[in-house]
Structures are given as C-alpha cells and as structure tokens.
Amino acid sequence: MELEKRYFNIHEVAAYLGVSRFTVYRLIDRRKIPFIPLTSKSYRFDRLRIDKWMERKEVKVPPEAA
Predict the structure, then answer these.
(1) Chain CA centroid to CA 36, Å
(2) Residues 16, 6, 51, CA angle at the centre, nearest 5°?
(3) What gap in Å lies between CA 65 and CA 51, rounded to an integer?
(4) CB-based contact 43:36 (threshold 8 Å)
(5) Residue 46: its H or E element
(6) Which residues make Cβ contacts (< 8 Å) with residue 5, sequence separation at least 6?
(7) Which strands make up the sheet holding 36-39, listed edge to edge?
(8) How far is it, in rounded angstroms, from Cα 16 to Cα 61?
(9) Can you say whether the dihedral through the CA atoms of 36, 39, 41, 42 is positive or negative?
(10) What is the pTM of this model?
C-alpha cells in the first residue's frame, strides 16, 4: 500500500498546481503560498496546506450565473 506524498519540493508543487517553477518562486517571494523554508534556497510545501490554500482562493459563482 503506497501512501500519498505529503510534502512537495518546488518541482512537485509546481506540477501539482499546474504552474511553472517561476510562478511558485514568485508566490514564495510575495508570501502568497504556504511554504516551509529548509534553507535560503530550498523549500517544502505541505500538500494539506496547499489544498486548503487553493480552497480559499476559489471564486464562488452565484447559482444564477452557473
């Protein structure tokens, strides 16, 4: 039984979100994405926190517009 990976590196979180690594670095610089700094150039991203962050970013559409 394979456990789902919880912590992503920069490449993995970019793929998970469907964006470029450059975009992830920009989000880090602007403190717009939850991350864990390991060193000055190495980061990890908790999949559970990324999922919650994405849910908060969702734009709600009124029922009459759907």
Answers:
(1) 11
(2) 55
(3) 25
(4) yes
(5) strand 42-46
(6) 12, 47
(7) 7-8, 42-46, 36-39
(8) 24
(9) negative
(10) 0.81
- What the block records as the tokens of 9 is 């590196």
In three-state secondary structure terms, 50 is helix
- Angle at CA of residue 7, ends 38 and 59, nearest 5°: 110
Strand partners, 34: none
Distance from C-alpha of 44 to C-alpha of 61, rounded to nearest angstrom: 32
Instruction: Please state, in angstroms and rounded to a whole number, the distance separating the CA atoms of residues 38 and 4.
Output: 21
Task: Identify the DSSP state of 6.
Answer: -
Q: What is the pLDDT of residues 8-58, one digit of tens each?
A: 999 999 999 999 999 999 999 999 999 999 998 899 999 999 999 999 988
Tell the residue number behind the tokens 């009459």, with chain if given: 64
| Tokens describing residue 49 | 């926190």
